[in-house]
Amino acid sequence: MKALILAAGLGTRLLPYTEHTPKPLFPLGGRPLIDIIIKGLEASGCESIIINTHHLHNRIIDFINSCKYSIPVITRHEPVILGTAGAIKNVSDFWNNKPFIVINSDIFTDIDLREVYSFHIRHGHPATLVLTDCEEFNNVPVDDDNFILGFDKNTDPFLGLETINDISLESRHRDKKRFAFTGIQVLSPEVLDYIPANKFSHSIDVYRQMLACGKKIYSYLPPKHSWNDLGTPERYKEAAIGELTPGAFKAAFPDCNCEDVRISELKGDGSDRKWFRLTSKNNSLIMADHGIRRTLSTNETDSFIAIGKHLYAKGLPVPGIILHDSFSGIVFLQDLGDIKLQNIIIDSVNRSEILSWYKEAIGILAELSLAGKKGFDTSWTYQSPYYNTDLILEKECKYFTDSFLRGYLNKKIDFEEFKNEFVKIASRAMEHQITGFMHRDMQSRNIMVKDGKMYFIDFQGGRIGPLQYDLASLLIDPYVSLPSGMRLELLDYCAGMISAAIGIDADKFSLCFKYCSIARNFQILGAFGHLSRVKGKTFFEQYIPAAITTLKESFRQLERNEFPKLKALIDNLL
Question: 290 and 436 in one domain?
Fold first, then answer.
């Protein structure tokens, strides 16, 4: 038995993801799809495999050359795509006088290929198409003996076929059983006689010609099986989750026979990620869906995984990462429940209790900064490795003017008019910093509380930067709106704690904090404006007044003649 894997397609249904990775190399459970197919053919008794390639063919060739299979696996490049039938004819020199298997490279199935091949040998007809019942693709009519009658209009995309305009054919078969082509077929050598050489041709044209000549095309309907077309992002993501979930539960709960996993979507936040809780019996995990990889460079998923593992290995309170696949963007995490620090603070009326929670959070923050910096690899970051003045100007000051003042308030504000004052703020925010690992979004909604213990989440934007920035994020957090007196008390507490630990000038520490607070406030308002107007997440609008209040308070603490243009602007914000 020999086999051809059809892998020359452009993967247009999977754009933009196939711009950098051909779909045969999309992974499932950590293995490229084409590797899964090759291993399946090996196990079925296949003696050699040929793969036709076109789009990003070197990526496929490099992968095949890096593997060691028990049977020969070769590739045949098509400079110009030949179509599904043309590809079969193009490797005529590969075939012997025995029937051969042709299989699409974008399917995931447990169909027994050995049995399919044996079935074809037994019935003696020139072609066997493996069919399945999938309502979305059920366009192949068969008679009571499971012989294929034709191919309806809007034929299954697996055949790579164009729409057929033979309405009478569709009408003639309207009452017949219909199934979907799986992308698996077994052909006898005589089929090659119906395929033109050195010419683009579709399989359906060949099969229609054979039917017209009185040849019969048999269908094989496998017994209980699983099958998935991975030709669209939705179907690929579905298959990826299905493959990863059992392994995630096994890794997290080794002694649990986790079956019937229930998936419920959780309420999202400011990012485009989706969150789910997966439950089986009394066990649960959190699944973060970052989206399929859009670039080969370091992305948000990569940073989330690398930084999360680094912090966890340091013994810092972050959720354990159970299992992950950076290509599909799926990450399984320890379930920390639903209680955020925000919930606790809003529900509390006891000042000393609030102070106690925040002092504990500040202690963990300081440990996160100082311990997290040790061994931190800046290549893990996907935005920028360091917090610096350029970032403050672009991602905070300009974000504030463009997304909040112009985008949200519709003010005719020119960033350049205030640039000199923004530069001064950015420069001072970097002075006297305690450099460490910077979380970048340290606020009450990113601190989970489980069994009385705090855990920090959403660390994927982490980088090297001032501890004071994370402290500012925590204390001016508009989700809880701490009173200014409490913020000052907690600032003094943190300065004293850091001074006792590593010996710092508390006044200089507080001065850096002051300008970091302004920079962070700019970022907050820019984000709220963007999320409300561009993303349509109007939920965040309710926190804009609190963010404006803290920004005004920060500017009132500055010298009277400092930043006259920005002060005038901010004093007039509603």
Answer: no
Residues 234 and 243: their CA atoms lie apart, in Å, by 14
Partners of 52 in beta bridges: 6, 76
157 and 295 housed in the same domain:
no
Q: CA 203, CA 401: separation in Å to the nearest integer?
A: 58
If asked whether residues 398 and 329 sit together in one domain, one would say no
CATH number of the domain within which 349 lies: 3.90.1200.10
Looking at the structure, do residues 354 and 330 belong to the same domain, yes or no? no
Helices 467-475 + 484-502 axis angle, to 10: 150
Report yes or no: 217 and 127 within 8 Å, Cβ to Cβ. yes
What is the rounded CA–CA span in Å between residue 408 and residue 541? 10
pLDDT in tens, 543-573: 999 999 999 999 998 887 889 999 999 999 8
Pick out the chain residues at pLDDT < 50: 154-173
For residue 174, what pLDDT is reported?
Answer: 53
Q: Are 436 and 370 in contact (CB under 8 A)?
A: yes
Q: Do residues 385 and 467 both lie within one domain? A: yes
20-to-58, 300, 358, 400 alpha-carbon distances in Å:
12, 17, 45, 34
**pLDDT score for 158:** 41
Answer yes or no: pTM beyond 0.85.
yes
pLDDT at residue 167 in the model? 37
Provide the domain limits for residue 200.
Answer: 2-228
Other C-beta atoms within 10 Å of 109: how many?
Answer: 21
> Are 566 and 435 in the same domain?
yes
Q: Which of 55, 68, 69 is nearest to 12 (CA)?
A: 55
DSSP per residue, 284-324: EEEEEE--S---SS--HHHHHHHHHHHHHHTT-S-PPEEEE
Residue 264 CB contacts under 8 Å (≥ 6 apart), including other chains = 276, 277, 279
